[in-house]
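Standup notes
- DV: blocked on the single-chain target, sequence here:
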Amino acid sequence: MKERTNQTILGSLLRVSPVLVGIASLAWATEATAKEAVVVERDKSAQVVSTTKGLTDASAPEASQLAQTLSVDELSAYELPENLDQVTSVSQLSDVQPTDWAFQALQSLVERYGCIAGYPDGTYRGNSFMTRYEFAAGVNACLDQIVALIGGGEAIDPEDLATIRRLQEEFAAELAALRGRVDGLEARVAELEANQFSTTTKLKGEVIFAVSDTFGENVGGTDDDPTQTQFAYRARLNFDTSFTGRDLLRTRLQARNIQEFDDGVTGTDMTRLGFDGDSGNSVDIDDLFYRFPLGDNVNVYLAANNFEARDFINEVTPLVSSGSGAVSRFGRLNPIMRQSDSGEGIGVQASFGDLQVDVGYLANAANNPSLKRGLFNGEYGAFANASYAITDDIEVGVFYQHYYAPGGTVNLTGSTGSLSAQSPFGDLVATSSDSVGGQFLVGLGPVDFSGWLGFTWARAESDGDGFEEDDQAEVINYAVALSIPDLGGDGNLAGIIFGVPPQATRIERSNPAVIGEEDDDTSFHIEAFYRYKLTDNIAITPGFFVVTAPEHDDDNDAQWVATIRTTFKF
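- DV (later): unblocked, structure below
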């Protein structure tokens, strides 16, 4: 055991300071010649220390030759004089061995107070040596643990306090260096966290190819089949930019040429597709808004172009997407949510666990300073929406909107219902309305059951077309839907929708001579589609829908609409 310890001392001396080896060699040579005890005077020893610290003189070769004749036992017999204490201790330069007092003392503290698990770097290497900086990290961990226990009012063994104090003293230099490095790292980490995000823009695209046609007599029976089969497209590129990692600036470019099957083509808006629109193949900015957070639960939307309520509210329907949901315009969502379509303004979205609350204000011609236009004097909608997830499978929502439109822009139905429901007092009479709707979604195993109900109470805000200010009207619509996600494969979707498009159930006229009738009959909307996912980026959706008694008039024959929608996403 003694020989092993001496070997360790010798290894440390050779590794750390060849100078000390020279000192030991000279001392042994004196002992071998005189055969007497070594006596070194204090003044001479000091001189030796001073000289040997920079040992580059002629004594170095002599010391090297003498060192070659030393044995371990002879070297261990030599004791350094007390006046050499100013030389850096070998223990301060060497690794900490499992046999050292400090190692065993720290091990005892770890076992008592659970300071560290394994080594400070999170590994465990058995009874292996540690560098002094590794060991200092362990001492620091135990010190922090003991301080925390004392702060919590727990009593600490005085012997343990003395041990940790001694360890602090022996490893003061390493602890100071360690804490300095930690402080430096914390400063650098703080700087990185403050500047870690650089402005990033992501490109997302969607392209729709659609083959579509309508079948059946035009409303009024003027044409047996008013349309021909069309092949058209819609292309969208979303540039999503973030400046902080939590905000979003969206710029959408869009070009399309999908002819609308509206009242000018089939005699009714009830036959419109959910993805139609024609820009004459020109590229427009279709969407432009900026979203930023207020705290952890609130997002604010500032919209500069073509913003819609459904861009940020929870509609509580799984079929709302124009590219991958229902194929009809009416079948996508509650029509009262469309009253303020394509506007500019502000929206606020707040989430409180399972509850989401949304409010917003959108104006249709906010950029136009003309009379009956602008941010507050033209067509606008102020709305609020609340949705709540009762369970993982049940969700409900309530929507309210106050809407106003000057004469010439009135559209209470978002172009999904009859003309009487769209503008019950005629298009030239300024109209306001209050609409309330309820939505639900219930998961029934592999099937989702959803639907909505919407009421609109409209008022004439001016005289015209024989109507007088404050004349009243009521509009109703509803729908239910069954959808089966992943039917036949992941990403597939089958859907069936049944409903009644917006219908004017009452129009109150101050002047009974005015022509303006309610919708006495009822149209039914029946739709079916199946989305088949070819790849992660391509899906094909064949679908059709039929509208019975279009314009809520039994005198009109049913209109059929069929389409094959192919959607590319990237």
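- Follow-up: The chain is about 25% helix and 35% strand.
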